[in-house]
Amino acid sequence: MTSRRNFIKVSGLAGGGLAISLAVPKYARTMAFKPGDREITMNNFLTIDTGGNITAILTKHEMGQGTGTSVPTILADELGADWSKVKIKRSDYNPVYSWREMGTTGGSGSIERIWNAIRNAGATAREMMKQAAAQQWGVDTMVVKAENSFVINLITKERLEFGQLAEAASKLPVPEKVVLKKPKDYVYIGTSVKNRITPEVVAGKANYGIDMDIPSMVYAAIKRCPVFNGKVVTYDDTEARGLKGVLDIFPLTLSEDVKKTLHPKIGYVDEGVVVVADSTWTAFKATKLLKITWDQGANGSRSTTSLENEMKAAKDAVSFKFEMGDFEQVLNDRNNEILEVEYNNPHHPHALMEPINATAHFTGEACEVWVGTQDAAQTNAEVAKLLGLPRENVTVHVLNSGGSFGRRYHMDSSIEAAFISRKINKPVKVTWTREDEMMHDHFQHCLRNYLTAVITPDKRVVGVQNKAICTVDYAIWSEKWDHYYAFPNIRGYRAHVPTLVQQGAWRSVGEHSGSLGKECFIDELAHKTGKDPIDYRIELLGNEVDWGDPKDFPNWVINYFLPRKKIIRQRYLDTLEYIRMHNLWKKEMPYGRGKGFAIANFGDTICAQIAEVTMDDSECGFSVDKVTAVVYCGMVVNPHFGRGQIEGAIIWALSAVKYGGITVENGVVQRTNFDNNKVVRMDETPEIEVIFIESDEEPCGLGEPGTPALAPAVLNAIFDASGKRIREIPVRKEIFQSA
Amino acid sequence: MGKYSLTVNKKTHTFEVASDTPLLWVLRDTLKLYGTKYGCGIGQCGACTVHIDGLPYRSCCIPIESIKDQSIVTIEGLSENGTHTVQLAWQVVDVPQCGYCQSGQIMTAAALLDRIPQPTEADINRAMKGNICRCGTYVRIKEAIKLAAKNISS
Ligand code: FES
Ligand code: FES
């Protein structure tokens, strides 16, 4: 039973039928510990008309994760609906949907965060359908059930379709309590319901942001300053203007006053010169003819080499973050052996398949924007600030996107399109070239870990220290809460070095960066102490980390955070035990081949990976033959989608291991397109086996959790195969010839 | 600038564009056939693949002036209502994630099966490695191609 409180509101639907509105706490589940959060109503979230047509509002951005199908299947299941009668309606940005859990898409949290709210909505509508039918038949609701969009009288076998009941149901009071289905009764949840976008995609009819087309629209491209934070000084557009089809050329510069109102990171736009033309091609071509003098600013003299030096120097200027136990004492014990190693995980590009774009139409009083975005609410806010319009005068239409992976949290293209449309008084589509997308990406941050372990003569690791040098102000294992492996003495430091490129979220964010050093280091320690990597992890997770005295902790840590940590630790253990029990790890590898293991969590989902590699003469010096992923994520709503996310994340991370890590020279990113920014293609794709550990627990995210374990699993496998410890990605063949 | 006449999906269009305009941008901006996608513009990703006289080509690298009396088929014209063997297999396997690369993948796969109806693993890799999928649907693409091949043979 779930207490209803005032979460659900019911009303009649114009034209007859039932409309369910949701009033849900701002942070539905994951952050329920935060008191005082508002409730927000989502009007007509679910409607059933008198024809039996069911419409579910989708507030999530469809970017390839399948949410546009999986979220409505949850609703349909709880409702007892016939899936083929369920239509999905994309919502434009609307303040009533704008709260975090509904309005943004990311953090692998779409299902996890709305799981309860959505099931309650479905169950409420289902109960009302049952009541309406029971009243009509003059029976108790106990003897009716809802199934496949019908309510069935279990005694007489009479049936009424939802459409026939919708009007009567809308006049009933909202039930005080509804019973949610038991997992064993699910019809759609847990099955591989087909993706609703597939038929459109295969027919070439799926439209993405870049395909937006409105009457009298013109096309724009921008030559942006190649250096982050650089400025336009002067430009000569004579030649570009000579090109037939060029309509206008002007600089894109924002006044300091406007800039101050925009979000410093996600509202950041590069300065540049805009070309407006009658076609995308002409606009692209004309930008190449512009002669621009830039003020490159401070970043113009920086490079990846200078960044590396800055990061190395920062090792001696780290700030102390935490200590559990007494690291210094074991370090100073002369009998102990000290192991010191350094790991490096550089900036990686997104290289989204669909280049960045946005279309805008400014009409003086209002502005419409069409864009594939992970955060329509913030897009609305940034565009409104740029134009000095009230937020309600800005409409953001969210279109499907060709991959997001964190990149589409940034509003740059929408701000650009709105800026240009205002200037020319016309609807305009801004398309970034692939080169723009690569050079002006919001890259994964860069992390170096200086790791120290103290090992006793009898081969026990009694202390671990991490100095994390990072281009952002977070890094896993640099805060005590990131630790699950219970070494007796642990110490963490961190230093923040200013970035020389724009940075942003990248599939799994800090987990990818930090897991490399962490999981490789554990492997090193297992070898040092003569232990099996799986057994060793089980041993380290056997005790809870000593977080310190709870009386020093805030309430949310005690009530929410620590219990969650317990669950995650248990899931780590269950996953490792599963692997041990099913003999997934005990495989003999022939000469020249090797296997490696790593495990990581993203949110509450655990993903362990076993990588099998062969050393060869390819440009990376190795190939990955197979990856076995074991995933603990609670219930899997759609196994086909779930497996697809893990496969995709493995291939994504493998691209970073083989070809990631940009170089920057004089502030300019040296990657421009898929020729010099390689990514994994079909012929390099390993065999991938995905195993979900069966569970009835609430579903947790799957979009990102497949990423972080891959890189360390591969590097550990390379060690197994070659005897060489590689502590950096990307891996190049040359490294096997040296060292 | 020049006047061109082009047969796409059995329909002939006449229009005026700059002579160096790649076929990709004619299809998209001029003919409003948005199923063919832009991914790189330099022949590296395969998102823009179309058939020219039955063979797969990167439309981003073909200037309009170089096309002479040839018949062009885009994803929209591969079949009526997405019923080509490859499109059907794609639906059965439920290949797409974001779907952006998939028109190109399907056009390349369809051309492969035209040429080699029963491709080996190596044939598939060789034909498909020019098509990037950042969502990483390669495993499913391969499965769908194998299914399509099976359906052709029966
Ligand atoms: S857009 Fe033509 S190959 Fe990439
Ligand atoms: S399905 Fe998204 S790029 Fe291939």
UniProtKB/TrEMBL annotation, chain A:
Coiled coil: none annotated. Gene3D superfamilies: Aldehyde oxidase/xanthine dehydrogenase, a/b hammerhead (3.90.1170.50), Aldehyde oxidase/xanthine dehydrogenase, molybdopterin binding domain (3.30.365.10). Residues 203-298 form the Aldehyde oxidase/xanthine dehydrogenase a/b hammerhead domain. InterPro entries: Ald_Oxase/Xan_DH_a/b, AldOxase/xan_DH_MoCoBD1, AldOxase/xan_DH_MoCoBD2, AldOxase/xan_DH_Mopterin-bd_sf, N-heterocyclic_Hydroxylase, OxRdtase_Mopterin-bd_su_IorB, TAT_signal, TAT_signal_bac_arc. This is Molybdopterin-dependent oxidoreductase. It comes from Agaribacillus aureus. The lineage of its organism: Bacteria, Pseudomonadati, Bacteroidota, Cytophagia, Cytophagales.
Automatic annotation (TrEMBL), chain B:
It comes from Agaribacillus aureus. Residues 2-78 form the 2Fe-2S ferredoxin-type domain. PANTHER family: BLR6218 PROTEIN, OXIDOREDUCTASE WITH IRON-SULFUR SUBUNIT. InterPro entries: 2Fe-2S-bd, 2Fe-2S-bd_dom_sf, 2Fe-2S_ferredoxin-like_sf, 2Fe-2S_ferredoxin-type, 2Fe2S_fd_BS, Beta-grasp_dom_sf, Diverse_Oxidoreductases. Pfam families: Fer2 (PF00111), Fer2_2 (PF01799). This is (2Fe-2S)-binding protein. Keywords: 2Fe-2S, Iron, Iron-sulfur, Metal-binding, Oxidoreductase. SUPFAM superfamilies: 2Fe-2S ferredoxin-like, CO dehydrogenase ISP C-domain like. The keyword Zinc does not apply. The keyword Iron applies.
